[in-house]
Design brief:
The protein is 63% helix and 13% strand. The chain has helices spanning 11-25, 41-51, 57-80, 86-111, 118-140, 147-227, 232-267, 274-291, 311-328, 387-398, 420-423, and strands at residues 28-30, 37-39, 272-273, 295-301, 307-308, 333-341, 347-353, 375-376, 381-382, 402-408, 411-418, 424-425.
């Protein structure tokens, strides 16, 4: 059997499991003889191995058998007040646990896992039946092989193996549910990351043209300096700047091409229903608010649930707007409202917040690249001021729509007007 790589379990673990076996053995019924009991104690042994495969099985079986047998002797004495015959009555049950442990050890060497396939259920029925048969043969000799006795111990084996199978299957399904939840969370985080990268790549493509123009300007400057026969040092500086920008352009385009190809291969045609998209945004807002030491209340009005092929573009737009609102909020709890109003010529999507508002003199500047009012006075760091400019670019060029903003103290509302055919299907 394959062992785990961590350290072997100690005697403390063995004694703990043996105690669980002892407690399970107290749930029992008597068959044929008052000393022959069918209990749930034996079910604990394979269950313990299901969770801890490196449990030493033989010491565990011996400890369990000794513990259950001594408990029978003690209970018998408390009931009768006599010791006579109690140890002899308990010995066969000790043999039952040892025999079951040996068969279970053989099974594990053969199979390696506990109840992994349906065939294993029959194996546990057989082990339970044979161990019971040994105990019953010691107690009743030849009468143990009568049909009635055989039928009852077979029925007991079927029931106990069934209980074991049900518990193990239940735990396996629970683990699958946990894994599914983890996979869902990873998927949600991946979608948000892709949406962010989608927007950043859009911005990088715009900057690529700026780099090209800057390189051409630098080279024209070099040619002008050369024609005017200005100092060679100035000509060399201009040429070196043009050359360096050219190298930067090549590396920049290589990185941009790699990111674009990766996204195109994985997410090009993937879409999403609007309510699922909003669910992702709600989780993002909660995490962002927590990072900012705030709480967020998101109110959503979405009478219809259209499917959009522009999920990553829309995610990037709405994520930027909601993140800005959270960062601008001055209160501990920030209220965000999203509403969707379908139309014939335009679909309207609005994002509102209850923040301090945007000064009227800044309303005409917020979509300009580089404009920002976000300054960290403790570090001197200024926001790069690309978020709303990127939002405007995505709305106008990727969604073929329009964006506008109205603001006053206590309410800022961004309105997106998008042609239905530009973002939703069906």
């Amino acid at each position: 059997m394959k062992k785990d790589t961590h350290a072997p379990l100690s005697w403390g673990h063995i004694l703990f499991v043996s105690l669980l076996v002892l407690l399970g053995a107290q749930v029992n019924i008597s068959l044929f003889l008052s000393s022959f009991r069918i209990s749930l104690g034996i079910v604990v042994l394979p269950l313990a191995l299901f969770f801890w495969q490196d449990l030493p099985l033989l010491p565990l079986s011996l400890c369990s058998g000794v513990g259950v047998s001594l408990s029978r002797v003690l209970l018998g004495y408390l009931q009768t007040g006599q010791w006579a015959g109690l140890l002899a009555d308990a010995l066969p049950e000790f043999l039952f646990y040892v025999a079951y442990g040996l068969m279970l050890l053989t099974y594990l060497h053969w199979r390696g896992k506990i109840l992994f396939r349906p065939l294993d259920y029959l194996c546990f029925v057989a082990m339970d039946y044979l161990a019971n048969l040994l105990e019953l043969a010691v107690r009743m000799q030849g009468q143990a092989f009568l049909s009635r006795e055989q039928l009852l111990i077979l029925l007991a084996a079927l029931v106990r193996a069934g209980i074991l199978w049900a518990v193990v299957t239940g735990f396996r399904q629970y683990r699958l549910v946990l894994l599914s939840q983890e996979d869902a969370e990873r998927y949600q985080n991946l979608v948000l990351l892709i949406a962010q990268l989608h927007g950043e790549i859009r911005w990088m493509k715009r900057n690529s043209q700026l780099i090209e123009e800057t390189m051409n300007d630098s080279y024209r400057l070099y040619r002008t300096l050369e024609q005017q026969e200005l100092p060679k040092e100035l000509q060399g500086d201009a040429l070196r700047i043009a050359t360096n920008i050219h190298e930067i352009k090549k590396e920049y385009r290589t990185i941009l091409r790699g990111l674009s190809d990766a996204l195109d291969l994985n997410v090009e045609d993937q879409g999403m229903y609007l309510r699922d998209l909003l669910s992702l945004l709600e989780k993002h807002c909660q995490i962002t608010a927590q990072d900012l030491g705030k709480t967020v209340r998101l109110e959503i009005h979405c009478p219809e649930n259209p499917y959009t092929a522009k999920a990553y573009v829309l995610l990037s737009v709405l994520r930027n707007l909601m993140t800005n609102a959270l960062e601008a909020g001055k209160t501990h709890e920030v209220l965000l409202r999203f509403s969707y109003e379908p139309g014939t010529a335009w679909d309207k999507l609005t994002v509102e917040d209850d923040g301090p508002g945007i000064p009227q003199e800044d309303l005409q500047e917020i979509f300009v690249p580089g404009f920002s009012t976000k300054i960290n006075y403790s570090t001197g760091e200024v926001s790069r001021g690309l978020g709303l400019n990127l939002v405007k670019d995505l709305v106008e060029h990727s969604l073929l729509g329009e964006i506008s903003v109205a603001s006053q103290p206590g309410n800022t509302c961004f309105l997106l007007k998008i042609p239905p055919d530009a973002w939703r299907e069906g």
